[in-house]
Amino acid sequence: MDASSDSTSTADRLLDAFSGLLIEGGERAATLDAVAARAGVSKGGLLYHFGSKAALVTGVLSRLRAFVDDDVQQMAAAEEGRVAYFIRTSTDVGTDYDISINATVALAQAGDDDAVAALADARAKWYEALMPEVQDADVAWALLFMSDGLYLASALPDSYPDIDRGSASDFAERMLSVASRLTAR
Asked: What is the Cα–Cα distance from 149 to 181, expressed in whole angstroms?
């Protein structure tokens, strides 16, 4: 393995560790010592890659922006259409993208204005990606809120005990049917 691959791998491990700690215990639990220990590197190794906790935050937010940009490109290229892609992928949990979003939410909940802005930017990009297909601002917002609900129902299925939803993908297909009715002209 060359040095650049090892460096990227270590930086990714550090961002993964930071993200996991943010999700599990919030911003206060994600100390530099805890990040280094979880990633299996020395604190000096962490500081070599990320000179401060603020640099780790920047890394997490940059990672989210890259995921969102890729997601929007996939949405625009989806054969099934933008709405179908967006609704179907709203049930994806446990992915690196999902972890990135949740880590950013944890930062936003701790009062990080840059994290709040990154989440707002993600929503704006999803909204803009939906608009060419739906051509109605209120419908685009309804789809964004539907996506949020689908995600929560997939991430925390026990918090929706009264819904006969079947599998996450079955539920997404049912909601896609509703979305189709919203977007029908």
From this structure: 18
| pLDDT by residue, tens only, the chain of 185 residues | 444 455 569 999 999 999 999 999 999 999 999 999 999 999 999 999 999 999 999 999 999 999 999 999 999 999 999 999 999 999 899 999 999 999 999 999 999 999 999 999 999 999 999 999 999 999 999 999 999 988 988 888 788 777 776 777 888 888 889 888 888 86
Instruction: Tokens for 27, please give them.
Output: 């911003």
CA distances from 62 to 41, 94, 130, 152, 173 (A): 22, 19, 23, 24, 31
CATH 2.60.40 fits 1-51, yes or no: no
| Whole-angstrom distance, CA of residue 156 vs CA of residue 150 | 10
Residue 93 burial by Cβ neighbours in a 10 Å radius (0-12, 13-18, 19+): middle
Interatomic CA distance for residues 174 and 167, integer angstroms: 11
pTM of the model: 0.90
**In Å, how far from its chain's centre is CA 94?**
10
